[in-house]
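Why do we bother with holo predictions? Because pocket geometry can differ from the apo form. Keep that in mind while you read this record for magnesium ion.
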Amino acid sequence: MPESSSDPSNGAGPDSNKGEFQLIHDYFQQQPLHRSDVLLGIGDDGAIVSLAKEKQLVLVMDTMISGVHFPDSTSAYDLGWKSLAVNLSDLAAMGAEPAWLTLALTLPHSDEQWVQKFSHGLFELASRYDVQLIGGDTTRGPLTVTVQAHGFVEQGQALLRNGAKAGDLIYVSGYPGEAALGLELIQSNNRQHPSFELLSRRLNRPIPRIELGLSLSGIATSCIDISDGLLADLHHILDDSGAGANIWVDQLPVSPAYQAVANTESFYLPLLSGGDDYELLFTIPANKQDEIAQIEADISLTCIGEITPGKGIQCLDPSGKKIEVARLGYDHFLEA
Ligand code: ADP
Ligand code: MG
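The structure, written out:
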């Protein structure tokens, strides 16, 4: 039971528990999806699931705070979707198959319509990947959503950040930077822009790359999802793998919408350092390119560079010349 609900100063009277239990029952306990490995879902003190012997469990968690991780104007539906999507993206980056989730929801007040829309967004994405909500906690306070997601990998098959080797090729899925441009259009209230719908959707309804993560098992030497920006997340791979990287700037994937919105002065800035796209960034040995070609039939993948024996990241033009930091506009990420 939440401690805060007995505190009259936050407007929660003794009856508010009823509201809380009713909300959980009416909206979170009603997911149509029921997995056969869930022995006990929402309703008791804890959930019970059964585990296959040959699998390992992968657990991830992400918190989203209003005004910090999403604009206050974000719709309840989008927030429901995204709070799960960012977690499924972490499972994708581990090469895991998602199974269950738990949800800790902190709400400023008991707003039934809001909870209903939130649950619809969450369940829409959950059912796409056969993920069941099996428990959680509901409390009162500033709007905050924490999701924990659970998934499986075959024994020892998880994709980690530490396996990149000099000579490996660096790939990225989709079009990173579109979410950051979507945020720019939202913040400048540029709703008339022809790319507004597409780019704001990239920000609010990211598609976790679950299928890609699963198909990279046995191929990728390292993998991460891009939540903080392509270069920042590539740095995590390089730090853990003890390697450096060359990025071929002319090979970076630029979509028509990106082309239409990105500022020419700092054209690659959103692509290289904008966050929130939840694309996968991964490395493969050069002799596995054929296997990547097969996966590319279903999803756009781009080879953007290579792992080097050095340290840090260098951005190169087609002739191999290092591109001036100032031209790219993100000097704090580059090393000489
Ligand atoms: P307890 O006081 O024992 O922690 P709660 O009243 O918090 O129990 O929760 C009752 C049941 O409702 C539990 O099964 C819990 O997992 C579930 N639950 C509570 N909040 C949520 C939520 N936001 N989403 C999903 N399940 C929830
Ligand atoms: Mg509880």
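The chain has two domains: 11-154, 169-320.
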